[in-house]
Automatic annotation (TrEMBL):
Record PANTHER family: ADP-RIBOSYLGLYCOHYDROLASE (PTHR16222), ADP-RIBOSYLGLYCOHYDROLASE-RELATED (PTHR16222:SF12)
Gene Ontology molecular function: hydrolase activity
Gene3D superfamilies: ADP-ribosylation/Crystallin J1 (1.10.4080.10)
Record-given protein name: Hydrolase
InterPro entries: ADP-ribosylglycohydrolase, Ribosyl_crysJ1, Ribosyl_crysJ1_sf
Superkingdom, natural source: Bacteria
Alphabetical keyword list: Hydrolase
Pfam families per UniProt: ADP_ribosyl_GH (PF03747)
Length: 303
């Protein structure tokens, strides 16, 4: 079994915790309304299932392990399609059902993803939600982080905003991993460093706005200004999620509670936050009940 860097396994585990934690709040909010969220009440459930966010992150980590950190896009596209075919009930978005079915049926992935949304390609948040462990893998080389994050994006999302979102999350995870064992960067500095390495895009503009927000900004206001994933696009998901992560780089539990309070696409925003923060902190400090409740991850490697 391939030995994976500790930060990669931590990031993957944190991503899965965030995904499963956020995903269950859709049902809780429908049944009990926002009072349960405001009170931070977690009704007991036998299992916290993770969604397509984690399913795709697992595929990506296996691809990195086999490729020595380099993404083979043809192989990754097929692996994503195979994982989808094995379990189609993980909450995949409508366009991804079409993309992954067609790739699995043998259609060329480049043509399939380029045809989405009248030839614009998807600018959804799917490439960003799975990518944090890649950033942790390449933490020592931020140029490689950006290159490989953009490459893995293209197998499912043709739009440049989707790629920018993926690069932003991967850079954030890399910077978090680089800070392991040292003081946490200040939120503005952390976000500005991410933005400085992004291409001209709405994602970069959003991250820059997030970096300039005053320290006393509330989660609700940040979600309203930045967007918390209601449109499920890269630009309206990634800046908010990174704002949440950057403010809680030493506290994964609080980071997830803060993120879910912004509502929106909460499994994805929490997956991003979990993947970024855990690249620095690991997941050991999460409550034991959370560890007992979350669906286990299949083996992908060892430390």
């Amino acid at each position: 079994m391939v030995n994976l860097p500790a930060a990669v396994l931590d990031s993957l585990s944190g991503l899965a915790f965030g995904d499963a934690f956020g995903d269950r709040w859709f049902g809780i909010l429908r049944r009990e309304g926002p009072a349960a969220l405001e009170a931070r009440i977690l009704p007991p459930e036998p299992l916290w299932r993770w969604s397509d966010d984690t399913a795709q992150a697992l595929v990506l980590v296996r691809e990195l392990a086999e490729g020595g950190g380099t993404v083979d896009r043809d192989r990754l596209a097929l692996r994503l399609a195979e994982a989808y075919a094995d379990d189609t009930h993980r909450g995949y978005g409508a366009s991804m059902h079409d993309v992954l079915r067609r790739i699995g049926a043998g259609e060329p992935w480049r043509e399939v993803v380029a045809e989405q949304f009248d030839g614009q390609g998807s600018w959804g948040n799917g490439a960003a939600m799975r990518v944090a462990p890649l950033g942790a893998w390449h933490a020592a080389d931020l140029d490689a982080v950006a290159e490989q994050a953009a490459a893995q994006s293209t197998v499912s999302h043709h739009h440049p905003e989707a790629a920018a979102g993926a690069v932003a999350v991967a850079l954030a995870a890399a910077l978090a991993a680089r800070s392991r064992g040292g003081p946490a960067p200040a939120r503005p500095d952390f976000l500005q460093e991410v933005a400085a390495r992004l291409p001209d895009s709405d994602v970069r503009s959003g991250v820059r706005i997030a970096a300039r927000m005053p320290a006393h900004t509330s989660v609700r206001h940040a979600a309203e200004v930045l967007g918390s994933g209601y449109r499920m696009s890269g630009p309206d998901t990634v800046p908010y999620a990174l704002w949440c992560a950057a403010g809680h780089l030493d506290d994964l539990c609080e980071g997830l509670w803060s993120t879910v309070a912004g509502r929106g696409d909460i499994d994805t925003t929490c997956a991003v936050v979990g993947g970024v923060i855990a690249a620095r902190t690991g997941v050991a400090a999460l409550p034991p009940a959370w560890h007992a409740a979350r669906e286990p991850l299949p083996p992908v490697g060892s430390r």
